[in-house]
Each structure stands twice: as structure tokens, then as C-alpha cells.
Specification:
Mean pLDDT of chain A: 96
Distance between the termini of chain A: 47 Å
Number of strands of chain A: 13
Radius of gyration of chain A: 18 Å
Order of helices and strands of chain A: HEEHEEEEEEEHHEHEEE
Low-confidence stretches of chain A: none
Largest interface: A-B, 63 and 63 residues
Oligomer: homodimer
Helix content of chain A: 10-25%
């Protein structure tokens, strides 16, 4: 059986210490000047998931994209900063060697893992009413970055503007999505999917200004078992901006299973040039 | 002139290395089993603001409350992981010595700072229409934790339930707030104020279950100059939950100046017991 491109891209081997993992970027998830940020974020989660000292499952992740990740090998360090009875806090970094052979940090992250328990529960962010998947078509775009081919995206609102004509509008995008080819949902793929939304400023301004995520935080509301239940079915994702100022804007996101279970909520800060 | 209690609580002196700062918890910002989390978050920002290598102003902060901070001295390490032309990424931790004299991490954080530039701007999260400050009264509560006395809070919606009778409702709180006594707004006080909202689950369920923030992310949309313009005037704050499941819920927050400038957006993940 051939390994899924995402699993191939996430392949980490043990490094020089128990907290060190070695990997390499994958052309399959390449964006314009570096890998797709969702993939880089997933690497942080993958390192934690592979760590022998792991307690529980991911509940919170913050990733900082501190510099473009270059094509080639990288080292991830994932250190359990504190392990409590039912929670664990991780500090993570990804580094690459520069031309002089010195390690330089390209990503920093923190992850919280926890043993999930049954408690009272409520979903105050119900899935919006949108057209069913069967009424949608996969988005195909000529000349897009390679990583977009790794996702089956079906916009039901807020698609990438057909014309970048500077006509200002809202910033809400809603879409059905899944891995292409399909792959059973887990924490790493959910992490990546929380970052599939193109920069809100392109939609808001109908203008393609240079933009890139600088920090991203995702909370996982679903257990591993709930993700396994979703399997290869589509997720509904939604993203919307709050404020644009001084070269940075934020966008919030929610991801639901096809049956309305809120799987993850996310927020990110995005740099924009003008 | 007497130092404001917040400035007194945030006092950090230089430690053994250029990245190390020494401080001590303040009884003035004490919560139930540790300091008010907003104060602990502000310490991370304060260390960065005092660091001689600082580039720019805070734009993003994530704080993980990995263990209760004990009363007494602590050491903060703030390391610039990467400095770019106009942005800088920080990795921060706060540790205290345990009974055996060994350092234990109580907080981890990442901060991104940047040089702010004038760009196109928009506020897609306008300030809600609420009663003016003059129509509100300061909230006073018998037997509250000490830190609540450090804030003048004036609820205009979603106040702490008068009766914890288990009657389920929404989770939206809106309030006017400022430091008590008044103190000119800056990044550290804004950081703390993004965490003044009591756990949404108390409002949502009208039930006072054990709850505590485990991770918090704040994006600063205002410049230092804009915060200085706010001065000692009130902010309007708003917080609302998205999902409660498996012992954790998230709440999002927005803070505006009295005149409607969106100063910060925030999200946090909160542990709850049952």
C-alpha cells in the first residue's frame, strides 16, 4: 500500500536525543516560498504524538511561523515542559541549518495535551446551514500552489474572488473539504485543515496583497475517537476576519464534521504588506 | 508618587543572564489558588518589553498556564528565538523552585513583536451598542478574590449569575472596565484585561464548577500610541464561549476603546471539572 502524501510528508525519525526528531519538507505540500503553513503546524503536533512521554491527546496548539521554512531537512525539538496528572505542556521548535551550517529557528510552538474525560457538554457554535456536499463542485484553479491539490475544497461561500477588482466585501468563507486523496481524519490532518483558508484580506478587498500567517492557535474539541468516527468524510470549515491594521489582521475559524460536531476552533494572525 | 499596584506587581529585575528576569507574585493580584491569570500573562509581555534586544511592539501573545504559580519569587526567561527585519519571535517561561529547590515551569509563552506600519485598515468587529458608562455601576461582590478589587468592572450584560440555580443560558458577557485605581493603558494592562472575564461556564450553566484557564492567545491590534491615547478611559470588553466538551471549553473576547477602536482580540481554553 502506498503511503498517503501527508503521512509521507510528516515522516519523522528519532534524532540525537529523546526530544529531537528529524524530517524533511515535502514537495507535495509546497506553497509559494515555503511549505503550506498547515503542514508546518501539523509537524509540531506529529512530533508530540510520536514522543514516548506523551500523555493524552492534543487540546491546544499555538504555532509561530518565525521565518520561511526552506526546502530540505529540518530538526524538531519537542520538550515536555511540565507533566501534570492529566495534562501535559510541550515546547517545540523547528530549525534548519543556514548556508553557514548554523541552526536557525523557523517555527516555534506550544502544545497542550490532556486525558479527555466525559463531562457536561454544549456546542454554542452550531454548524451553519449550507448546501450539501452533493450540490458542490471541487474548486480547481490554474497555476495554484501545489498544496492546494492535496485538498478537495468545495466552496459554498466566499470563494477566492474571480476578479481582483478592489471591490470591498465581507471576509466570510465557508467550504466543504477533505484530504485528496481521502485520508482518515486525525489530529495532524485536522491541524492542517484549520489553515486551508486563504488570506481573508484577498476576499475582503478583492485585492491580492502579499500576506502570510505569522501565528496560529487551534483548540481541539474532539477526541481521537470522534475524529476516527469522521473517517474520510468531509468537514465544513468557516473563516472570518475581525480587524485589519498596521500590517496584520486576524481571522477566526471553525471546523465541523458533516454531522455538525464542532471539531476545532482556530484563530490566526496574518501579515499583509499594504 | 506611589507606584500603581500593577506596576509594583510587574517589577522585574535583571537575572543571571541577559534573558533572565526576577520577580515575585503580588498579593494585590491574588486569585484563589494562584495569581490572577491576566497578571501572569502580563509578566510574559513585561519581560519582553524590558529586554534590551526588543524590536517593535507586541502583536501576538500565547500564554500556557502549565501549573499553579505559587506565592513568592519566580524567574522568567525571555529569549528572542528569531529576529527578522521588522518582526521578532520570543520564547518565554516562568519557573519557581519547588520544596526540593529544583526549578519547575509554571508558565510557558510565546510573544511576537513587530514594527507597526501604516497600511489599509478595517474593523469588521464593530463595538456593540451598549449603555454608556455613566449609566452603569461598579460591580462589588462580597468575598471575591482580591484581584477583582484591582478592576472597576461595570457589567452591561452577562454579569455573574445572582443565583447559581443551574438554569442554562447564553455565555455572552459585556462590560466596561478599567484599572482601579486608574492607570494609563499599555500592552501589559491590556494583556491582563483580556483575561478579566470569569469562566463562561458559570454563566452558561448558572453553576459554579471548578474552572481555570489553561491557555490564552491575544492579538494586539493597537499601537503603543493608540493605547496611550486611550489613557485611563474605560474599555468595553466582550467574551463568549464556542464549545464545551471533555473538560475544556474555549471563549473568545474582544476589547474596544470607549470610542470603538478594536484594541485586542483574544481566545482562551479553560479547564472545567464536570
Amino acid at each position: 500500500m502506498t503511503k498517503h502524501p501527508f503521512d509521507h510528508a510528516l515522516l519523522l525519525t528519532s534524532g540525537s536525543s529523546g526530544n529531537t526528531f528529524l524530517g524533511a519538507t515535502s514537495p507535495a505540500y509546497w506553497n509559494m516560498v515555503g511549505p503550506f503553513g498547515g503542514y508546518t503546524a501539523a509537524l509540531a503536533v506529529q512530533a508530540v504524538m510520536q514522543h514516548p512521554a506523551l500523555l493524552g491527546e492534543p487540546v491546544a496548539l499555538t504555532v509561530n511561523f518565525v521565518s520561511a521554512t526552506n526546502e530540505g531537512p529540518f530538526t524538531i525539538t519537542a520538550t515536555p515542559a511540565r507533566t501534570n496528572r492529566s495534562t501535559q505542556h510541550w515546547v517545540i521548535s523547528l530549525s534548519q541549518r543556514n548556508a553557514a551550517g548554523e541552526p536557525e529557528v523557523a517555527m516555534t510552538a506550544t502544545v497542550m495535551t490532556a486525558l479527555r474525560r466525559d463531562t457536561w457538554q454544549a456546542n454554542d457554535m452550531p454548524m451553519p446551514v449550507v448546501p450539501p456536499i452533493s450540490d458542490t463542485a471541487r474548486d480547481h484553479r490554474h497555476g495554484s500552489p501545489v498544496w492546494l491539490e492535496r485538498y478537495d475544497m468545495r466552496f459554498v461561500g466566499g470563494s477566492i474572488p474571480a476578479q481582483f477588482d478592489g471591490r470591498e466585501a465581507g471576509s466570510l468563507t465557508q467550504l466543504w473539504m477533505r484530504d485528496e486523496p481521502p485520508r482518515p481524519l486525525d489530529f495532524v490532518s485536522l491541524t492542517a485543515m484549520a489553515d486551508v483558508f486563504y488570506p481573508r484580506i484577498w476576499l475582503r478587498r478583492a485585492k491580492r496583497v502579499a500576506a502570510g500567517t505569522v501565528s496560529m492557535t487551534t483548540y481541539f474539541h474532539a477526541s481521537q475517537a470522534q475524529l476516527a468516527d469522521v473517517g474520510t468524510r468531509y468537514l465544513l470549515g468557516q473563516a472570518q476576519a475581525q480587524a485589519f491594521r498596521h500590517g496584520f489582521f486576524d481571522q477566526t475559524a471553525q471546523l465541523w464534521s458533516e454531522y455538525g460536531t464542532l471539531l476545532a476552533t482556530s484563530t490566526q494572525l496574518v501579515y499583509y504588506k499594504e
